[in-house]
Amino acid sequence: MALVAVLLAVGGLLVTSALRDTVTYYRTPGELLGDPGLAGHRVRLGGDVVPGSLRHEGELVVFRLAEAGHEITVEQRGAPPETFREGTGAVVEGRLSSDGVFRSDHVVVRHGNEYGPSSSPAVTVDAG
Amino acid sequence: MMHASTVDLLTDTAAAAAARRTMAWAAAGLTAAATVAGGWLAPPDELQGDAQRLMYLHVPAAWVAYAAFTVVLAASGAYLIGGDLRWDRFARAAAELGVVLTAAAIGTGAIWGHLVWGTWWAWDPRLVSTALLLLAYAGYLALRRALAERRAARDGGDHRVARPAAVAGVAGFLLVPVVHFSVVWWRSLHQQATVLAPHRPPIDLRMATALLLAVAAATLAAFCLLLHRVRHLERRLAPEPSSSAAERTPAGVG
Questions:
Q1: What are B208-217's pLDDT values in tens digits?
Q2: Minimal C-alpha gap between B180 and chain A (Å)
Q3: In terms of pTM, does the model score above 0.90?
Q4: What do you get for the CA distance between the two ends of chain A, in Å?
Q5: A116–B45: do the CB atoms touch at under 8 Å?
Q6: Would the CB atoms of A4 and B167 count as touching at under 8 Å?
Q7: Any idea which positions bind heme (chain A) (predicted)?
């Protein structure tokens, strides 16, 4: 009976928090920019890596994350996973500074539910 | 229909044994085909490379775990309605399978997440609800054992264990839709469903074939294991002299 009670309580908590939108694994750029109370707090920010925005500056990886028309520039300290690339989703963890740059120290890649082979033949092009 | 064929497969007749052997060979054949298809014939994913092949382990494990908990739900319900302890043994065996496969899904998911997301674990709705599901059914099995010990009863052969267990088994199933829809209800790191997507599945045909073979192999293998486990439980419980009378006592209410 205790098990049932705990399960019902946890289930109820999950459903109510879903309705109140408090269980959010990450926030979108629009939400972060629209809520000044979040500035300076450690949060997760998710969006798509804007094509053409990715560059390396020393040990920093700089890119922009966009979702629904809002964009935030991210300065990531440390190497992202190998699957990280422009155009795919990513979630970064860190703080939004007062200068509008999101400084993160952790990045994970979000991939979609689409699976397919490489569109171009798998031929390695030698840079040399 | 389903009921009759399932019960027939549990008997010691030559026909039932032959049917069980045929199923085991079919499961082995499907596993071999899925290994070839998933390991070699299906192309590596454009974004994820060979890490995507973990899908052919992860998705079947999760699918069979859901199916096993559905069997717990159905068998617990059938026990509560009819009072036949055979259904209680089905519920126990299915919960054991479900717990092992949920753990396998979490394990393969962690490796896949490490390779593709860049993290072993995330406090994400899908991952947390799956962990809760594992806890719920591990708790269900612990409850059975605790009840059997406290009441000096035989787990799988006694209504004093079966009745509360059936209630817990039904209640635990409430988490299954939460796990399945977690990627839709909440913003999640986990990708949404592919094969059960509302529109045409966004997956390469060769990958989909390998995945379906793997799911079919896992489902059939799990069904063989379930029958084997129930037969084992029945044989172990057989010597009880009063069991044949007790088997038919209705569960009743309260």
A1: 999 999 999 9
A2: 13
A3: no
A4: 69
A5: yes
A6: yes
A7: 111, 115
